[in-house]
Amino acid sequence: MRMRSLALVWAALLVGCGIVRGFYIPGFAPNKYEEGAKLDVYADKLYSSENKVPYDYFSLPFCQKSPQSLRQQHLSIGEMMLGDRDELTSYDIRMQVNASCSIYCDQQVVSSELQTLRSMIDDDYFVQLNIDDMPAVTKFSADGTEFIHFGYPIGYTQADRYFIYNHLEFKILIHKPELSLEDISDASGECDNCFRVVGIEVTPTSVNWDVDISEIRELSSDKSACDKKKNNKPVELFVKNPEGQRLVFTYEVTFEQSDLKWATRWDPLMNADPALSNVAWLYVINPVAIMCFFAIVVAGILLRTIYLDFARYNNLEEATDMEEESGWKQLHGDVFRPAPFRGALAVACGAGAQLAVIIFVTLLFAQLGYFSPVFRGALLSALIGFWVVTSFIAGFVSARTYTMLGGTQKRMVTTGSAFFLSGALFSVFFISNLVLSLAGSSAAVPFFTLVTLLLIWLVVSVPLNVLGSFFGYKMEPVELPTKVNPAHRPIPAYSFAGPTIYVIATGVIPFGIVFIELKIILESLWQNNIFYLFNILFVIFFVLVVTCAEVSVVLAYLLLCREDWRWWWPSFFASGSSGLYVFCYSVYFIVSHGGLKGIHFSSSFMFTSYSLLLSICFTLFTGTLGFFSTLMLVRRLYTSVHID
Predict the structure, then answer these.
(1) Angle at Cα 313 formed by Cα 309 and Cα 316, nearest 5°?
(2) pLDDT tens digits for 269-290?
(3) Which of 13, 391, 522, 575 has the most CB atoms around its CB within 10 Å?
(4) Which of 127, 122, 125 is nearest to 45 (CA)?
(5) How far apart are CA 295 and CA 301, in angstroms?
(6) What average pLDDT does the segment 36-46 reach?
(7) What is the C-alpha to C-alpha distance for residues 175 and 261, in angstroms, rounded to an integer?
(8) What does pTM read for this prediction?
(9) Is 431 helix (H, G, I), strand (E, B) or coil?
């Protein structure tokens, strides 16, 4: 029996080792290449900082796909939405084998394709390639500072003439691993002459060759002779030629040893913007200063005004000497009067609670490195997954809020919680995907994937939401400290402006917390840069939570002091109105962008629609924070006073 148990343990260990050995996530396990091993070059997409519609690399008259079997593409939904396709090209690059005058391909390009090339050059499109999951980058200098741009431009214009970059100079940085803690994986295999790819730099040029293709191939191993055959005259695109134009695409490869280790090979790309890297943490100072200032204001109200109110209201010895009371205590019979459109308020709070959990979990995972640029599309895929899983929270919070407000139309609230925000998101995504499909973009999600997402929403997300509502309704309602009078108390007339003006004005404060970070995120999205300041966003998240609570609490307390018991919706929109400023700034960003002189409809539609969704989500998130913070304060206030 003992031997049998021991055998089962060993079998389990062997099976577990096999599973662990076979479980591979790109970016965790480094690839090693022996000298002479082929390095596959993959084409991700064509992208532009002026037109946000990405295209397939092979949609242009470049060289055809590799005749070899293509890599099995298991693209995530995030990669599809970003337009990445990872298609194998015909570049023949061998580890540690320098090459010059290598022929990529030559082909006849018809006039319509030449016109497409010129249009792409006008829109400043770049080609994004990668080797070993490392993107090829172009380096350039400005004012003595070196910058990095992902990919290389298709061509350039000069005096209304169009030229194409038909020659690429690859410089591949490699590192020979050594037995260390960083390279401990090498201990598992014998490879004395293996290297790892730690960087790819590409320099595009336009070369008009003076020799035939056969002569170019003969010069592939002689760089000096190859350079002599290059003509200084670039390749111009001639559209008016009815027969088209023959284009020859060539490349050369050099390898360079680097001290950069595989584990830190992304560091130079993450710090591609020196100005942003040096002042990154300074962006936290502004939000923290705003939060501290408002904390002082709230502390003055809570520790001075409310404390004195308690002392005055609860001092029974002086009760006979008090004049007719005024202020927030007089609203004890109306302060918890149900809000108008309480079903909508409950649905909004449920969606906001779901968004709060999604944002927190996403930023937490980002701190752990799960959304590294190595995992392309991981952030979008994770957001979809988190959204489905947290649907239970939306239903639960909506149900609890609605029962607290004394609502009876539970089915309507449950349906609204399941379909309100999710339906809006899916509708905008579907319409945007249709626009991308009509534009022929690689970011258009295939129909089968679209149906799969719809089924995940209807079969997984909606039932989870309904289940959360079921448990929310089954629990005892939240107990409120005072009862509601049959007749409501008259509200004094406002002499200057009603609460709506104050509600809209206070939204500036939460918006000021995220303004700088919003600007950086929009610029990163528009210019296709890597956003890596998740640590700062994590800090800003907590600052924003505190600020939204402070803003809504102050406004609600001022309303109650003025004997206005309608605090439910104002407490929500006091911080939630910041979404309006987010949308206005997003529109201002796209209008004021320097490169948008001839803006494309598809780009403007996508950017505006997704900005609108972002603003709605920001409104729900910040509004929910303000609402529940105010609810805690109001319940505490009316629990702590003696009601006659």
Answers:
(1) 145
(2) 776 555 555 555 666 777 777 7
(3) 575
(4) 127
(5) 10
(6) 89
(7) 6
(8) 0.83
(9) helix
